[in-house]
Design goal:
The structure is a single chain. By secondary structure, the protein is an alpha+beta fold. Helices cover 47% and strands 12% of the residues. A three-stranded antiparallel beta sheet has the order 1-3-2. The chain starts with 15 loop residues before the first helix and ends in an 11-residue tail after the last helix. The model has no long low-confidence stretch (mean pLDDT 89).
């Protein structure tokens, strides 16, 4: 038995924008990093502490990726001490309402994972 569209019907497809968004935001840590930066700029060490389980090399890779697509900016502060901070660009900030809606949905509809901090 074959299941598929009836004769003359167009096969169902997923919106390409949704596919691209989830391919990018669903990549481990990307969405969480954006959500963490939604509260304001943060330095590398602060982000490492805020995201238990992320390695420094992965954090560096993800921040670079987010910067390359224009969602995060990197600012070097002249020292002493020298510092680097990351913050959302306007394009990154445009995602905050969607991230907040996803977080609200998750709090209301998904069981909490006991091993994760509730603020992550």
């Amino acid at each position: 038995m074959t299941v598929g569209p009836e004769a003359g019907e167009t096969p169902r497809t997923c919106d390409g924008g949704i596919t691209r968004a989830f391919a990018f935001l669903g990549k481990r840590w990307n969405g969480v990093l954006l959500g963490t930066l939604a509260t304001g700029p943060a330095g590398f060490a602060e982000l490492t502490r805020a995201l238990p389980g992320i390695s420094e090399s992965v954090l560096s890779d993800r921040l670079g990726e987010l910067a390359r697509v224009g969602l995060v900016s990197r600012t070097v502060r002249e020292g002493p001490p020298l510092g680097v901070s990351y913050q959302l660009t306007d394009r990154g900030a445009a995602l905050v309402p969607a991230l907040e809606a996803l977080a609200r949905w998750a709090h209301e509809n998904l069981p909490a994972e006991p091993e994760r901090r509730p603020d992550c």
